[in-house]
Amino acid sequence: MTKEEFALRLKNACAAVCAAQEELTEIDSKFGDADHGLTMTKIAGAIAGAVDTAEGGIQSMLDAAAMAVMSLNGGSAVPLWNTWLDGLQEEAPEGEIIDTAGVKTIFARALEELSDMSGAKVGDKTMMDALIPASEAIAAYTGDDIDQLFAAAAEAAAQGAEKSREFVSKFGRAKSYGVKTIGTPDAGAVSMSCFFRGLARR
User: Fold this and answer.
1) Taking 90 as the threshold, does the pLDDT of residue 176 lie above it?
2) pTM of the model
């Protein structure tokens, strides 16, 4: 996958998040601050803008995306996404080509960085309910087709976000609502699922 192709996937991912703004706001309005849709639209816009203008190779592009997000004012999603994007760039190639092994390496590192920072696991009703399954699908992929790799990740993320309906919130403002949160998916998991759905498009 070339830098150009990766950039297009990232922009498609950001477009998918922006298209879901109203849905994310509606979900977050039930047990949160009703700002997740707006926050994620800002994050997606920052990523897309950085990807569009970044010079250099793939690592530079991902680093620019992380820096763009870091400069935003927003809720808890901003530092979480900054950490994840920063993790992606840490072992990304400096050049303009990345193969499936490289994709697996950067997504594994990104998950490791975010896991260390957030402490959340599957079942805690957070963005990790989508990100961990997606990352595990990437790690488990044994082929050499980028399309299939991202399709598997997108499917796993979607299933994870849907499954978050069954969980009780253990982080953030929603935590105080306890079992009332059962039946509603986590907004962060849904936005992450949208991002992976867009990554699967080229």
Assistant:
1) no
2) 0.96
